[in-house]
Amino acid sequence: EPDVTIVSRLKDMEVFEGDDVTFQCQVSHENARDVEWKLQDVALQNNEMNEISVEKGKIHKLTLRKVTEQDIGTITFRVGPHTSRA
């Protein structure tokens, strides 16, 4: 299985409380396994507040809905041994 690397990294975002914010990371291969999103070292799951999706097989997206002050912090995207933070 080829080593999946991060092609385009996360970008820092500033949003207003109550808005949605989307982070995206592009990886080198489609159908990457061992992918994880974290906020302040807490793993995020796909639910009504966090939308985790993949577009075109390589663009991994995380949308945080109606952010609050508690959502301030570092977002981490990890694929295998590679990470990107914003």
TrEMBL record:
Residues 2-86 form the Ig-like domain. The lineage of its organism: Eukaryota, Metazoa, Chordata, Craniata, Vertebrata. Its main location: cytoplasm. One of its GO terms (cellular component) is cytoplasm. The keyword rRNA processing does not apply. Pfam families: I-set (PF07679). Keywords: Cytoplasm, Disulfide bond, Phosphoprotein. The keyword Cytoplasm applies. It comes from the Eukaryota. It comes from Alectura lathami (Australian brush turkey). This is OBSCN protein.
